[in-house]
């Protein structure tokens, strides 16, 4: 009997492809020190591919680096400490970048624009602070002098990464301190009302009940009927309810529109197809949200150049 195809075949194929792509190969990159001297790796290392025991020329070059302050040897304990700090640095980066991707891919920025989720906000700040602290220690351990930032490929890429991280950190501070409270305040009000512009959904809130004022719309204008003795509890002769557009109904009313026109004007009805303009702080939030998403990919690309190019 012919067996049915296994559902695990695609999984096996994907895993095999991943292992093939990630399988370690002999490095062919030329380190910065070798590039500065013009020699291949085999000139300073016993192993021609680089790394490991040094040749006589390599030891002489190492002595010169120590004398120039460009080489900082680490003890076993220091290596362990740097490894631990680097581990937490990577965990924090995964948590931070993961939060940004989670908001964009699953929640969408519109979700956060109604008020920053407290859990995601707390996780993001913890991750950023851990990155800042661990990154500072790792930089001190890896960079022997200020000149390294501009004289080596490692230092240049690290400078770019620090620059973009600073931008993301600054934008996070602006979002938390300035934008966040305004988004929270906006969430407490109905998004269908902005200034003196109302959608019909927004108008329906003002029905004269539960302490709300009684508004009606007539020919695109919003009138406040709260002070009229004919609009007690948001109802006019038990036929017409506040919070609605009464333009058509008033055509058949026994009185003219002068009764309505005499009432205070509070706003206008948003025309069909016209959208409420987002306030400045909300537009700024969207800008920072998509900017940070782009910077996540840029920083990841810089790390790829740093590690594997």
Helices, by number, come to 12
Question: pLDDT below 50 for ≥5 consecutive residues: which ranges?
Answer: 1-8, 25-30
Assembly annotation: single chain
Shape: rod-shaped
| Main sheet overview | 5 strands, mixed
| Widest sheet: strand ordering | 1-2-7-4-3
Structure class:
alpha+beta
Elements, N to C (H/E): HHHHHHHHHEEHEEEEHEH
Sheet-strand content, in percent, reads: 5-15%
Mean pLDDT: 77
Give an overview of the whole structure.
With 309 residues, the chain is of the alpha+beta class. It has three domains: 9-66, no CATH class; 90-190 and 289-308; 193-269, Cytochrome b5-like heme/steroid binding domain (Flavocytochrome B2, Chain A, domain 1). 56% of the residues lie in helices and 7% in strands. Strand 3 (215-218) and strand 4 form a beta hairpin. The model is unreliable at 1-8 and 25-30 (pLDDT under 50).
């Amino acid at each position: 009997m012919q067996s049915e195809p296994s559902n695990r075949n695609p999984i096996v194929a994907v895993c095999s492809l991943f292992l093939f792509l990630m399988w370690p190969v002999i490095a062919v990159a030329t380190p910065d020190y070798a590039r500065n001297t013009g020699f291949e790796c085999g000139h300073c290392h016993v192993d021609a591919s680089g790394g490991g025991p040094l040749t006589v020329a390599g030891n002489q070059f190492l002595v010169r680096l120590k004398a120039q302050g460009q080489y900082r040897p680490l003890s076993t304990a220091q290596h362990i400490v740097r490894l631990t700090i680097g581990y937490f640095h990577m965990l924090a980066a995964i948590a931070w970048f993961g939060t940004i991707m989670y908001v964009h891919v699953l929640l969408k920025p519109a979700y956060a624009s109604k008020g920053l989720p407290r859990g995601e906000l707390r996780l993001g700040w913890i991750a950023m602070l851990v990155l800042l602290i661990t990154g500072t220690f790792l930089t001190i351990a890896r960079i022997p002098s200020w000149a390294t930032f501009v004289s080596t490929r490692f230092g240049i890429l690290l400078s770019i990464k620090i620059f973009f991280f600073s931008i993301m950190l600054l934008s996070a501070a602006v979002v938390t301190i300035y934008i966040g409270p305004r988004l929270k305040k906006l969430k407490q009000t109905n998004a269908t009302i902005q200034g003196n512009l109302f959608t019909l959904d927004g108008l329906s809130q003002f029905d004269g009940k539960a302490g709300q004022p009684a508004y009606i719309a007539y020919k695109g204008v919003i009138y406040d009927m709260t002070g009229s003795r004919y609009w007690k509890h948001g109802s006019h002769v038990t036929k017409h309810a506040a919070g609605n557009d009464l333009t058509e109904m008033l055509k058949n009313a026994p009185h003219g529109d002068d009764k309505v026109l005499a009432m205070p004007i509070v706003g206008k009805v948003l025309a069909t197809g016209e959208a409420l303009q987002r306030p400045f702080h909300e537009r700024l939030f969207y800008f920072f949200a998509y900017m940070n998403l782009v910077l996540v990919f840029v920083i990841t690309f810089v790390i790829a150049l740093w590690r594997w190019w």
